[in-house]
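EI: anyone free to look at a 77-residue chain?
SC: sure, send it
EI:
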Amino acid sequence: MFKIYTKHTTEVGETVFEHLAFTVKIASKMVAGAFFLIIHGLSGGLLGVPEKYNICAMKEFLCDADEGREQRREENE
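SC: here you go
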């Protein structure tokens, strides 16, 4: 199978396309979280932030994603 690698994607143990999918997933979740936080701020706190997009949930999501990536990196070494 044809796989494209760069220095960075080799270091993180992903192909360019796997890396793209990972970054799109992270960025999409962060954009959605930012949207809900902005709406929350504009409403003066009247509109709540959905639980899966609150600050603690976003931190957990990012830490879990990083942890999974570290495990894949260790497996590829």
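EI: DSSP finds three helices and no strands in the chain.
SC: 👍
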